[in-house]
Amino acid sequence: MFSQPEFWVAVAFVIFVALIYRRASTMVTTALDKRAATIQHQIEEARRLREEAEARLEQYRRQQRNAMKEAETMVARARAEAERQQAQAKTALDEALARRREQALDKIARAEADAVRQVRELAAELAVAATRQVLAEELQGGRGAALIDRSIAELPQRMH
After folding, report:
1. CA–CA separation, 3 vs 6, rounded Å?
2. DSSP assignment, residue 1?
């Protein structure tokens, strides 16, 4: 067996394979460890990015909820302000209408008073004119003198 060359080729081949295996296994193990470390690093980076994304998502959701609450508050305030302004406008309109009505009633009352005064003045003028005409017709002649004498006689009694 030691004298056969196939034996020594087989021994040399086994030694060669052992040496190659040792160096190759070290290189393969090192390469695989590096690859595993890179993959582990990528996984950790992905995990960190995912956690950061979840934190930002939660932050945006919180901001959205706050914005919605603020928007609802603003809408409620705007509605209240609109209702208040509507009530003020209604009150102002009612007051303006009441003032206009009072002004119209005052104007009508003044017009009525003027009309009554004018009618009275006209009636008095007509009465005076009619009285003059009647007196002028009746006081002509002796009858007018008798009426004047009788009025003068009654004057002292009417004065007291």
Report:
1. 9
2. -
